[in-house]
TrEMBL record, chain A:
Pathway: Protein modification; protein glycosylation
TM region positions: 133-156, 229-250, 323-345, 352-371, 418-440, 452-471, 483-505
Lineage: Eukaryota, Metazoa, Chordata, Craniata, Vertebrata
Subcellular location: Endoplasmic reticulum membrane
One Pfam family it belongs to: Alg6_Alg8
GO process terms (BP): protein N-linked glycosylation
Identification of the protein by name: Alpha-1,3-glucosyltransferase
TrEMBL record, chain B:
Lineage: Eukaryota, Metazoa, Chordata, Craniata, Vertebrata
Coiled-coil spans in chain: none
Sorted UniProt keywords: Endoplasmic reticulum, Glycosyltransferase, Membrane, Signal, Transferase, Transmembrane, Transmembrane helix
Membrane topology: Multi-pass membrane protein
Function: Dolichyl pyrophosphate Man9GlcNAc2 alpha-1,3-glucosyltransferase that operates in the biosynthetic pathway of dolichol-linked oligosaccharides, the glycan precursors employed in protein asparagine (N)-glycosylation. The assembly of dolichol-linked oligosaccharides begins on the cytosolic side of the endoplasmic reticulum membrane and finishes in its lumen. The sequential addition of sugars to dolichol pyrophosphate produces dolichol-linked oligosaccharides containing fourteen sugars, including two GlcNAcs, nine mannoses and three glucoses.
Protein name: Alpha-1,3-glucosyltransferase
Signal peptide from the UniProt entry: 1-22
Pfam annotation, one family: Alg6_Alg8
Length: 515, 505
């Protein structure tokens, strides 16, 4: 009954977004190009083709997915499958692409249903709107980020997050092998999910391969089960073989890897994801400006700061040491280490795994190389599950989700999309606040007053960037200013949520040590 | 969850749907030389801004009435003038006399769409919210559901935000009138309705019920004393409102006369294009336009309309309750739509508004009619390139409303007010009328879907190029006729018993 209504809601929402057939985004052309490549060219040319600038940079399973879609696409408009027809955008093409996103979103609906079944309800209530599973379903299916990135822009994140959430749900239901299989498939669909691979690895090793724990939750080495480890290994390797096998046989593995991991791109994405490196860049720029003003530095001696140009290039920092990919990797691993250690030393079941997953996603988001703002969804969506079960997590979710979603605003920059993004953001924020507050009513407010002030500050930033800024003369001289302001302001919120999540984790550690 | 947050989310959702539909094409997009309703509205902004009031409705060298001449009452002109002032501030090219003909750009489209949205936000949506909260019964959750379905009615959204018109203003003002009358503020209600009349003359479809209700109410209160006072108050309000709206045109009788000639073009025929009313459907069998002379066509339609409207109006006069008023609004507007002169397919919106008011009381029949009314305008949507929004909004409305009202579960004979039919079919007592109604509903929806699909996917037979639009309008006509009969029977049957009313709540 519940899921029936949700599927209706989500289908209608998804298809409502079909009405927005006017919006143009580069991702649209990207996926059309991939449909063309996988359909018209033989396997050996898939990762070599570069007549369009949007080369295939997702792992092979996604290429197979596009190949499958291309057969349906042929019924709609065969012209879109021509590799040379760049920027082909006929109405049937647009219709087909949007329909494909809506249909693949059905997997997200299914995954949400599975997650809702795992939610623990403290006090079952008869009112449908007050039940945690319903609130979770709305938070997942109507997530502003997914709506905007998938349906207004154009990607298949709903489908991919559906696989992730399904994998999480399987772990919550103690079906670990299925969860591992789903995650292996997911990794081969989009390799960005490597961000959360440490969580999976440590959890499966610790809680699945060691069948029992000692009474104090430490490792019982004797209970190691080689059969389980072997099962996991077989699953992962077979998925990778199916996906990468043909390319290894053709000897194309280095080319594929270079396409998947293009480290030539800069430290920050063009729109500056709100992570630690955005703050680092701003710090660098501020110090430079201060130094020049106070005559401590000579302007001519400094290397040209290029990351503020808004383009994707190699970047050099002017004053502070430049960051290379290996530095980001080390920082990421360091940030993720305590969480991984905690589920190794003292596993708390599937929910501990989920918390570690969120921390891995957030840590990689904050310290990763060339992170896109969309990656914040990897932390927000799994956190929704924790948010409907615990008060503190609900408070953190509100801060992280609102900040993360607001940081997606620069992705929609045309005037036609302005009302859409504001309306959708208002709807989601209003719903998440009122629903979570009513769910955890009776113990004071979910948010600290300072957090409320910070979130209200988002409104000020929004008005300044969308309305005030275009009317000022700075639009010509400092074109990156709204992006900078948005990134920096949101980075503060994201870092704060990260710290708070860690505090909760460590507090749980201390509590369990005392016990 | 608190009601205010649910209402806000509802309203935000409906505004999002409206803006989503706006991003699609409009009528006459890229089709010179005449373009469509969008260009007509832009042209009126140009005319009202650049020319003095005396020239707005006259054929002069600067104002060519053949190219979208003003044919709505003065309030539309004033609204266009206001929009034109704002347009001038943003980009003067949009309203430049003569040079801006056929002006099309994405910025301009955004501006025009924004004007529709602002008008809706100021007039239609608040009226709908207040109506659902003060004049419909049920728990607050039921009221929110009613509001959601009311605001998601696809026909109005597609015409206003797709095809491009300002029906939200006139229907919104009429709704304010209904709201005021429901709350007992008769003078304010009459003022609101007079404003609606002065915005679009089609609101005359609703005029008879307003008149009969207020007259009946005054008579009930006693023609000597309070009733007379009420009558005088209303009359004065109406006259003053009309005078204020027509002020610039009252200085010269020829001015007023010209405006009247423009808004009631009796020179045009019995019907134009394909519309789901009696005359167009009759035309399939008998070519009525060639059989009768123009004058006799006029008299025939006048007589038929009067006959169709009379029963419901007299019933309202004798029993001026709010329930009767709502039903009379439906019956009157449907009767006018079916039998009147020069009816456009968009006029079905005038019947849809009162039916929306009945969503809470008679959900299944209301949803059925609203779906049929949207379907009747389908050829127009196809012409404007609005197929995808049409399909999406209709599906969403159908699924959402049947789920939220549990329309198919609460469809017993009592709840569908089929008592009158039971009396008609007294010779067949074992007939399960409720089941028949449900099956007719299912078959009708499937037929609508099938007709939509065939109109889009298949080519018409070579000798009958208008085959599908005619089929659509005849199908819709049968629905509307059935609805007229049904609502007349409901108006004449006794109100539901206390027991069944408690069950509904």
């Amino acid at each position: 009954h519940l899921s029936c209504m949700h599927s209706k809601c989500s289908v209608s929402v998804g298809s409502l977004c079909l009405s927005l057939s006017d919006s143009h985004s580069t991702d649209f052309e990207v996926h059309r190009n991939w449909l063309a490549i996988t359909h018209s060219l033989p396997l050996s040319r898939w990762y070599y083709e570069n007549s369009s600038e949007w080369t295939l940079d997702y792992p092979p399973l996604f290429a197979w997915f596009e190949f499958g879609l291309s057969h349906v696409a042929r019924r709609f408009d065969p012209d879109m499958l021509d590799v040379q027809r760049l920027q082909h955008r006929s109405p049937p093409t647009v219709l087909f692409q949007r329909l494909s996103v809506v249909c693949s979103d059905l997997l997200l609906v299914f995954a949400t249903r599975e997650c809702c079944r795992c939610v623990r309800e403290q006090k079952p209530s008869r009112d449908l709107l007050k039940r945690p599973s319903f609130i979770l379903a709305v938070l997942l299916l109507w997530n502003f980020g997914l709506l905007v990135v998938d349906h207004v822009h154009f990607q298949y994140n709903g489908f991919l997050f559906g696989v992730l959430l399904l994998s999480v749900a399987k772990h919550l239901q103690s079906r670990h092998l299925q969860g591992a299989l789903l995650f292996a498939v997911l990794l081969n669909l989009k390799h960005i999910y490597l961000y959360v691979a440490p969580a999976y690895g440590i959890y499966l090793l610790r809680s699945f391969c060691f069948t029992q724990d000692n009474t104090d939750s430490s490792v019982r080495w004797s209970s190691f089960s080689p059969a389980r480890l072997a099962a996991l290994g077989v699953i992962v390797t077979s998925v990778c073989v199916v996906s990468f096998g043909p390319f290894v046989l053709l000897g194309q593995l280095p080319q594929v890897l270079s396409r998947l991991f293009p480290f030539k791109r800069g430290l920050c994405h063009a729109y500056w994801a709100p992570n630690a490196w955005a703050l680092y860049n701003v710090l660098d720029k501020t110090l430079v400006t201060l130094g020049v003003r106070l005559k401590l530095l000579q302007e001519a001696e400094l290397p040209k700061a290029s990351m503020t140009g808004g383009l994707v290039q190699e970047s050099q920092h002017a004053l502070l040491p430049s960051i290379s990919p290996s530095v980001t990797l080390v920082c990421t691993l360091l940030s993720v280490l305590p969480a991984a250690l905690s589920i190794w030393l003292r596993p708390r079941g599937a929910r501990g795994f989920l918390r570690c997953l969120v921390l891995c996603a957030l840590g990689s988001f904050l310290f990763g190389w060339h992170v896109h703002e969309k990656a914040v969804l990897m932390a927000v969506l799994p956190l929704s599950i924790l948010a409907v079960e615990s008060r503190e997590d609900a408070g953190i979710f509100l801060v992280l989700a609102t900040t993360g979603h607001y940081s997606l605003f620069p992705l929609l920059f045309t005037p036609a999309e302005l009302p859409i993004k504001i309306l959708l953001m208002l709807m989601f924020t209003l719903y998440s606040f009122t629903a979570l507050t009513s769910l955890f009513s009776g113990h004071g407010s979910l948010l600290h007053p300072l957090e409320v002030v910070y979130l209200l500050g988002l409104v000020v930033v929004a008005i300044a960037c969308e309305i005030v800024y275009p009317l000022t003369p700075w639009q010509q001289t400092l074109p990156f200013l709204p992006l900078l302001a948005t990134s920096v302001y949101c980075a503060l919120g994201v870092c704060y949520s990260f710290v708070r999540l860690y505090v909760i984790l460590l507090r749980q550690e201390v509590k369990s040590k005392q016990l | 969850m608190e009601t205010w947050s649910l209402v806000s989310i509802c309203v935000l959702l409906c505004v999002t749907v409206r803006w989503g539909v706006s991003l699609n094409s409009y009528s006459g997009a890229g089709k010179p030389p005449m373009f469509g309703d969008y260009e007509a509205q832009r042209h009126w902004q140009e005319v009202t801004y650049n020319l003095p009031v005396q020239e707005w409705y006259f054929n002069t060298t600067d104002n060519d009435l053949n190219y979208w001449g003003l044919d709505y009452p003065p309030l539309t002109a004033y609204h266009s003038l206001l929009c034109a002032h704002i347009a001038k501030l943003i980009n003067p090219e949009w309203v430049e006399l003569h040079k801006s003909r056929g002006y099309e750009s994405s910025a301009h489209k955004l501006f025009m769409r924004a004007t529709v949205l602002v008008a809706d936000l100021l007039i239609y949506i608040p009226a709908a919210v207040l109506y659902c909260f003060y004049l419909s019964d049920g728990s607050s959750k039921k009221k929110v559901c009613t509001l959601l379905c009311f605001l998601l009615y696809p026909g109005l959204i597609l015409i206003d935000y797709g095809h491009f018109q300002y029906n939200g203003v006139s229907l919104g003002l009429a709704l304010w009138g209904v709201l005021a009358l429901g709350l007992g503020w008769d003078a304010l209600g009459s003022m609101a309705f007079s404003l609606a009349l002065n915005y679009k003359q089609m609101e005359l479809y609703h005029a008879l019920p307003f008149f009969c209700y207020l007259l009946g109410k005054s008579v009930k209160q006693g023609l000597m004393g309070r009733g007379l006072f009420l009558l005088v108050k209303i009359a004065v309000t109406v006259v003053v409102t009309f005078a204020l709206c027509w002020l610039p045109f009252l200085s010269d009788p020829s001015q007023a006369l010209q405006v009247v000639r423009r808004i009631f073009p009796v020179a045009r025929g019995l019907f134009e294009d394909k519309v789901a009313n009696t005359w167009c459907s009759l035309n399939v069998l008998i070519k009525i336009r060639s059989v009768l002379s123009a004058d006799s066509q006029l008299y025939l339609s006048f007589a038929c309309t009067l006959l169709a409207v009379l029963p419901s109006s007299i019933r309202l006069l004798t029993k001026p309750t709010f329930w009767q008023f709502k039903l009379a609004l439906v019956n009157s507007s449907l009767a006018f739509f079916l039998f009147s002169y020069q009816v456009h397919e968009k006029s079905i919106l005038l019947a849809s508004l009162p039916v929306c008011l009945l969503l809470n009381d008679l959900p299944l029949m209301a949803i059925w009619f609203l779906q049929a009314s949207t379907f009747s305008m389908m050829p127009l949507f196809l012409k404007d390139g609005l197929l995808v929004p049409y399909v999406v909004t209709s599906l969403a409305f159908l699924l959402l409303s049947t789920y939220l009202f549990s329309a198919l579960e609460h469809s017993s004979e009592d709840e569908l007010r089929l008592g009158g039919y039971r009396k008609l079919f007294f010779c067949l007592p074992s007939l399960d009328l409720a089941c028949i109604v449900r099956w007719k509903f299912y078959i009708s929806i499937v037929a609508m879907a099938a007709l939509t699909f065939t109109t889009v996917a298949m080519a018409p037979p070579p000798r009958l190029p208008d085959f599908f639009p005619v089929l659509v309008s005849v199908f819709a006509f049968l629905h509307f006729l059935g609805t007229l009969i049904y609502f007349n029977i409901v108006q004449f049957s006794s109100p539901p018993s206390r027991k069944s009313q408690k069950k509904n709540n």
